[in-house]
Amino acid sequence: QLQLRESGPGLVKPSGTLSLTCDVSGGSIITNDFYWDWIRQTPGKGLEWIGSVHFRGSAYYNPSLQSRATVAADTSKNQFSLRLTSVTAADTGVYYCVRGAENPRGLYDHWGQGTQVTVSS
Amino acid sequence: DTRMTQSPSTLPAAVGDTVTLSCRASQNINTWLAWYQQIPGKPPKLLISRASTLVSGVPSRFSGSGSGTEFTLTITNVQPEDFATYHCQQYRTPPWTFGQGTKVEI
């Protein structure tokens, strides 16, 4: 049974960097069949796709966040990560790591439980 | 970006009712549409893909239809566990985008 679990600080200061890790168990991220994505849910925008990464390293981003977001995969630890720089209160929300199909892209069948991140001084 | 608009925002219902939720895309997405169910405090759960294909294990009282820009999710004989928020999502063109959700409540 595939499980994804997010971890990272729950509180980040404005203008700081949000860093989250997703541990994957019950399956390997080394697969050509799936991408590994981050999606967030904020009071202002609801569910919003942030970006995705393939185990080979290729990454794709929502243009609205591309300048601030970095998604990376660590095959040695079977995990992937998200960094979001220059955060503001608008970045406050629940962040989910998810598994996305490779074909078609953008369909999400496994979600982590989510982690609340609050941007505040 | 493809904008997804759901209506209504809130849908009152009673156990045993049949309810219909609507989702509209700002451009043609063919049938590249998914529906998710979200219970408070939980992550979204995939119910339907390709506008009408039920995910394995999802009860048959859920059904989806539509193509192009207009889509519906129907719940027949609503059960207590169905009171939740339902999100539509397009995966025709990146960035993948979600509707704001319809809350089915008692």
Question: How would you portray this structure in words?
Answer:
- The complex is a heterodimer of chains A (121) and B (106).
- Chain A has 121 residues and is mainly beta.
- Helix content of chain A is 0%, strand content 57%.
- In chain A, strands 2, 4, 5, 6, 9, 10 and 11 form a 7-stranded mixed beta sheet that branches.
- Chain A is globular.
- The termini of chain A are far apart.
- The model of chain A has no long low-confidence stretch (mean pLDDT 96).
- Chain B has 106 residues and is mainly beta.
- Chain B is globular.
- Chain B starts with a strand and ends with a strand.
- Chain B has no helices and 11 strands.
- The model of chain B has no long low-confidence stretch (mean pLDDT 97).
- Classes of the chains: A mainly beta (121), B mainly beta (106).
Give descriptors for this structure.
heterodimer, A: 121 residues, mainly beta, seven-stranded mixed beta sheet, four-stranded antiparallel beta sheet, 0% helix, B: 106 residues, 48% strand, globular
DSSP strand tally of chain A: 11
Oligomer: heterodimer
Mean pLDDT over the full residue set of chain A: 96
Largest sheet of chain A: 7 strands, mixed
Class derived from helix and strand content of chain B: mainly beta
Largest sheet of chain B: 7 strands, mixed
Silhouette of chain B: globular
The number of helices of chain A is 0
Estimated helix fraction of chain B:
under 10%
Proportion of β residues of chain A?
Answer: over 45%
β-strand number of chain B:
11
Q: Which series of helices and strands of chain A comes N to C?
A: EEEEEEEEEEE
Radius of gyration of chain B: 13 Å
Overall shape of chain A: globular
Rounded Rg of chain A:
13 Å
Largest interface: A-B, 20 and 23 residues
Low-confidence stretches of chain A: none
Distance between the termini of chain A: 39 Å
The helical percent of chain A reads: under 10%
